[in-house]
Fold this sequence. Notes:
heterotrimer; A: 450 residues; alpha/beta; Rossmann fold; Ubiquitin-like (UB roll); de novo design (two linked rop proteins); 3 domains; 5-stranded mixed beta sheet; C: 369 residues; alpha+beta; Alpha-Beta Plaits; binds flavin mononucleotide; binds iron/sulfur cluster; binds FE2/S2 (inorganic) cluster
Amino acid sequence: MGRKLLLDKINVEGIRHYDVYRKEGGYRSVEKALKMQPNDIVEEVKKSGLRGRGGAGFPTGMKWSFLAKPDGVPRYLVCNADESEPGTFKDRFLMEFIPHILIEGMIVASFALGSNTSYIYIRGEYDWITDILEQAIKEANDNGWLGKNIQGSGFDCQMYVQRGAGAYICGEETALIESLEGKRGNPRIKPPFPAIKGLWDCPTVVNNVETLAAVVPILNEGGDAYAKIGVGRSTGTKLISACGNINKPGIYEIDMTISVEEFIYSDEYCGGIPNGKKLKACIPGGSSVPILPANLLLTTAKGEKRLMNYESLSDGGFATGSMMGSGGFIVLDEDQCIVKHTYTLARFYRHESCGQCSPCREGTGWMEKILLAIESGKGKMSDIDLLWDIQRKIEGNTICPLGDAAAWPVAAAIRHFRDEFEWHVNNPEKCLTENFGLRHYADPVYVAES
Amino acid sequence: MIQFNETTILKVNEIIARYPEGKQKSALLPVLHLAQVEFGGWLAVPVMDYVAQLLQIEPIEVYEVASFYSMYNLKPVGKYVFEVCQTGPCMLNGSDNIIDYIKSTLNINVGETTTDGMFTLKTVECLGACGYAPMMQLGKTYREHLTKEKVDSIIETCRSKAN
Amino acid sequence: MSEEIKTMKVTIDNITIDVAPGTTILQAARQIGGDVTPPAMCYYSKLEGSGGKCRTCLVEVAAGSTADPRPMPKLVASCRTGVMDGMIVKNMTSEKVPEARAGVVEFLLLNHPLDCPICDQAGECHLQDLGYDHGKEGTRYQFARRTFKKEDIGPFIQLHMTRCILCYRCTYVANQLTDNRVHGVVDRGDHAAISTYISKAIDNEFSGNMIDVCPVGALTDKTFRFKNRVWFTKPVDAHRNCKTPGCCGKTTLWMRGSEVFRVTARKDTWGEVQSFDGKPGWICNTCRFETKNAESWTIEGLTTISRHSVIGVNKYKTLDMPKETTKAVMNGVEPKLLMDIHNISEVNKPGVHLSDIKGPAHSTNFKKQ
Ligand SMILES: Cc1cc2nc3c(=O)[nH]c(=O)nc-3n(C[C@H](O)[C@H](O)[C@H](O)COP(=O)(O)O)c2cc1C
Ligand code: SF4
Ligand code: SF4
Ligand code: FES
Ligand code: FES
């Protein structure tokens, strides 16, 4: 069983509340941090090799060191708790059950960055979690961890929760900032980056919930010790939210050395596919990353066992690999229809496009319509190529990565499951009642038995 | 006249104080949430105009924002709004069946409200509960691992609470 | 450190130019001029914050700078990307740009009604020009086009949302030129729309400038609506001593005979409002909508329209005429409402070039033939 750093205390009764959390060693990292130089904290985070857990995997220490520090201008730390990528529900788990770890990490980060005010931007639907966070912030305030001159250090640290109101795009950091300013969630055109001009045009760092929580064990154990967990540039532990057709959906903290196969089939994790069905495909890192058929999921094109980490999941590039993304692990069993699943994702991205730039605004809706046509037996063979062409014209040509996020799932579905699309076109009646199943696999050996 | 009650006014002032001087527009999203709760579950134009006046911004700035975010209702809704997720992971776990079941049980289509003004059915996109699918949002919280029986009992509870 | 202003060297389509720091690729390309310049549907140099949205101005950066000569991984919006010293940009010479741009044009036209025959903007529409220059023939869109309800926004300006390409320019005008913005962008994604939400009248001395910045026929002059086609009228430069603070009083009058049909701001090569003494020549609503008698104006002479556009047809001999048939321009759709203008109009008879006529054109000029 792997090391747990974030969820090791999750089963302690009452860990949601300050007293228990503190008794279990909570807020030690703040005590330690307040005795350090802010820059040394940044160095410690750099040493840890921590990569952003929000999806892009950008090294956190490096991001912090980019923050501009002009005199007389406030700096802001913003926690990205918008969590809206389909398949992702890990941040919610941390905030709901162990909210103080986020607050603790944010205090350390605020001190390291010199930010006296920080905001947690949480998706509006997590209404009850907002209450939990506000309660935890109140407890931290009451115990001198937040407010003016915290723990007598001379450092002021205010923290607020801001609820969004239903918009996936507000997970994109500049859209989040716009939304926090009370505007529409239109992503900004970069540069300037938030590190230079962010919230109210002040230098701002935006980090994911899990990233900020991970700062706690990094300070407690030291950056080097943290970096020793995992492999290569995938250091520390990662929360995976597993869902779809598996026996045990939920949140798992993994150290990034286990194989995908173990993750799916072992009882410690997903516990295999329900009802003795076979694995068909999987989206390993949230709906935006490429879907992989079972064979390529479990083994890389080179024939190596694929591991649950940044490097291994992206091995083979988009041709034969995928991405770690946000850690939203979506499993599809043999009875699922790839076309239909891809359609629901296309509908999602059309619904969530902010509408600012033309390729995304127009292209997402077009793809959705074509996918629905194919799915309902009204597609033409040329539609498949058309889809491919549309996604190619969106990808890379938009203001923010939502365009790419909308293009990649469609591209990967056609890349790996073109025969299933063609079957829909050729069997307009049959595809309404029947499923294509596992006919993709000329060599069924690759499909692991549960 | 449209006006928040006193406790809400205090809450609004507390929210505005979270931001630097002159950045009170930042309070727009939280204040619209408060307004929606206080003024019947949706945002009528006079309500939005009131919020604009409260935050000293132009009404169009409120309309722009209110119409952008999917949680704000710009039309009246029923007392209970079932917002059922239909995105990929929920679909894999049978959200379609749940939506169909609610439709036939309440005898309404997606986007409609029952004639007694009690229930509105909406389909929504991923709510971050994919592992607990199928699911829906009902008011402040989520209802997860939905089955037909669960839907029945939710409807039952809502009805008895309303009486 | 030396005090002199440094310049930056940038190469666009193999042409090198020195520009001031802070110049964007698009501005640098405009300094070079000609085909090197990417089309811009949303950027407007006189409106702060504009650009970046339509993606028609995408270019390839083959080398970022002398210091870091790596190419940029994606095409960039030239209107919002600053040049670096030693940057190498490919516009028309790029292998990727024309295809990406054709894609953008297709996206922009996807839900566009293509109602050019009944659109007041026809003849001076930037989307028409874009379609000619960078689009591909025929549409691959097989679904019903999006439509919007008509919205009344007051006595002077007509909003035809279906034609809007969401360039946001008009909202910047409202923010930057008028006191109280009453219109904006409502809804999101493919439903996003320019609207006042409550059908309020847009009433402000400078609101009319929205019409001039709108690249398509989404915002048009109600006082001109359907009165005439742009190409039947003849543009002349004129000015008056306007008392409205902020109004430059310099305009283009669109005349037929001695009748003033329409008043607009004067436009530059890029279709933007011309600058006078370094300031954008915005005009007030009094000049635009309420000063339609020729006597109120001092006419300076014929307007030089340098922009390649349908307005130029029959007026400027030197211009390249579009060679495509109407059907091709309209993506394969047969024109329904187009009529042979010679049947119904005295003007624009073949063989008479407007630019040869001194002063405003009149039907007698054509009858003489
Ligand atoms: C469309 C879109 C949606 C995103 N949604 C989220 C999100 O819900 N949560 C999140 O933490 N990051 C999200 N991101 C990534 C953020 O832009 C940003 O990279 C991240 O918050 C940085 O934090 P990190 O470095 O700690 O990962 C999203 C990005 C895009 C383009
Ligand atoms: S890519 Fe989509 S979501 Fe991102 S800015 Fe453009 S329209 Fe908005
Ligand atoms: S109405 Fe015209 S100016 Fe305004 S956004 Fe639409 S196209 Fe642009
Ligand atoms: S897909 Fe339904 S909650 Fe995520
Ligand atoms: S002109 Fe540059 S993106 Fe529109």
